[in-house]
Amino acid sequence: MTQWAPGMIITADRLNDGPPTALTTTGLTPAAGFAVNDFRGYKNGRNVELNMYMMRTGTTITVSGTANLADTQICTVPPGFRPTSGTINGSWDDGTAEGGFVIGTDGLCTLRTTNGETIVGEASSAGNGRNIRLHASFILDN
User: Fold this and answer.
1) Number of helical H runs and strand E runs in the chain
2) pLDDT at 14
3) I want to staple 93 with a disulfide (CB 3.0 to 4.6 A). Which of 2, 31, 34, 98 is the partner?
4) What Rg, from alpha-carbon coordinates, does the chain have?
5) CA–CA separation, 123 and 74 (whole Å)
6) What confidence score (pLDDT) does residue 59 get?
7) Mean pLDDT for each consecutive 10-residue tract of the chain (142 residues)?
8) What is the number of other CB atoms lying within 10 angstroms of the CB of residue 105?
9) Does residue 111 contact residue 31 with C-beta atoms inside 8 Å?
10) 109: closest CA among 77, 63, 68, 61?
11) Where are the strands (E) in 77-141, listed by range?
12) What's the pLDDT score for residue 66?
């Protein structure tokens, strides 16, 4: 044990005495052409971690001649798990394609970039739409 100030002893139990972690598995709203496979939102103090597992149910999202895709809305995260100031960047992948996405203060998640691979949609591949995994971590401002 280390003593920092009179009466202030740091113990293993004291180090584990942080705020409880809030978990939500509901409230993620898919955009048109997507479905929610799974969702986990964690909040501990001001730290937020989002893991969103989506399926492309619409047509294939193709890349442009510059190996990029048009900004594509994928989902909206529930209140309480949204950035409070500015836009947050996150990463996504589907096992083949990967890229970046953003989350706004309104909770809207938008796919922004890709490594040049298309995102196959269920409507164009006889039920074999890609499963897209998105992840972001950030700190709430207030």
Assistant:
1) 1, 11
2) 62
3) 98
4) 19
5) 16
6) 86
7) 58 68 96 96 95 92 81 96 95 91 97 85 70 96 80
8) 13
9) no
10) 77
11) 88-93, 98-103, 108-111, 131-139
12) 75
Strands 72-76 and 47-56: unpaired
CA-to-CA dists, residue 84 to 122, 129, 142, angstroms: 34, 33, 7
Name the helix (H) or strand (E) containing 70. none
Rounded Cα–Cα distance for residues 22 and 108 (Å): 21
Q: Looking at the DSSP assignment, which residues form a beta bridge with residue 29?
A: 76
Tell me the residue type at 99: G
Kind of pairing between the strands at 47-56 and 131-139:
antiparallel
Tokens encoding 65: 């001649």
CA diameter of the chain: 69
Three-class secondary structure of residue 106 per DSSP = coil
- Stated pTM of the model: 0.83
Judge whether 131 and 76 are in contact, CB under 8 Å.
no
Two structure tokens written together for 133: 């995994």
3-state secondary structure of 121: coil
Q: State which amino acid sits at residue 112.
A: R
Specify the amino acid at residue 141: D
